């Protein structure tokens, strides 16, 4: 079983903790030692909005069908968790692995995500922009 990034104590303090623990139906976990590319796809809004976004669903499925690629998902934390992450210096993490984003090779995002997701600039990954600002 995957160790959660957040302690039970933190999960009990926040609204809708299920949005941060992963393991939902059709989520994809791969052996990180058997993939050549591992990256995080960051969505600049909360889990409920991101999961209903058809583009995210298509890209997640497309990338994870590739045997040597592991695409994880990251959504913006709700303000209650964002404050805790900042206060306790907990890095933003992927839903599937529950590991800090800095363990991924790249964060696939768009330019608005860097300001929309608190903590993202501090995770020390190489952001790869899917589009650029005008």
General description of the model:
The structure is a single chain. This protein has five helices and four strands. By secondary structure, the protein is α/β, with parallel strands linked by helices. The chain has a four-stranded parallel β-sheet with strand order 2-1-3-4, covered by helices on one side. The longest helix has 11 residues, at 54-64.
List keywords for this structure.
26% helix; 4-stranded parallel beta sheet; 134 residues; single chain; globular
Briefly say what this structure is.
By secondary structure, this protein is an alpha/beta fold. It has 5 helices and 4 strands; from the N terminus they run αβααβαβαβ.
The low-confidence parts are 121-126, 129-134
- The biggest beta sheet, please? 4 strands, parallel
| Spatial order of strands in the largest sheet | 2-1-3-4
Helix and strand element order: HEHHEHEHE
Please write out the topology.
Blueprint: H1 8-13, E1 37-43, H2 47-51, H3 54-64, E2 69-75, H4 79-87, E3 106-109, H5 113-116, E4 126-129
Parallel strand pairs: 1-2, 1-3, 3-4
């Amino acid at each position: 079983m995957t160790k959660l990034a957040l302690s039970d104590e933190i999960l009990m303090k926040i609204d809708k903790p299920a949005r941060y623990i992963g393991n939902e139906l059709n989520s994809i976990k791969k052996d990180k030692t058997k993939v050549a590319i591992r990256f995080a796809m960051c969505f600049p809004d909360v889990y409920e909005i991101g999961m209903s976004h058809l583009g995210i669903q298509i890209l997640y499925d497309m990338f994870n069908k590739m045997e040597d690629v592991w695409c994880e998902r990251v959504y913006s934390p709700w303000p209650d968790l964002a404050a805790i992450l900042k206060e306790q210096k907990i890095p933003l993490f992927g839903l599937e692995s529950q590991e800090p984003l800095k363990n991924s090779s790249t964060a696939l995002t768009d330019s608005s995500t860097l300001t929309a997701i608190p903590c993202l600039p501090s995770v020390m990954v190489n952001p790869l922009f899917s589009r650029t600002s005008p």
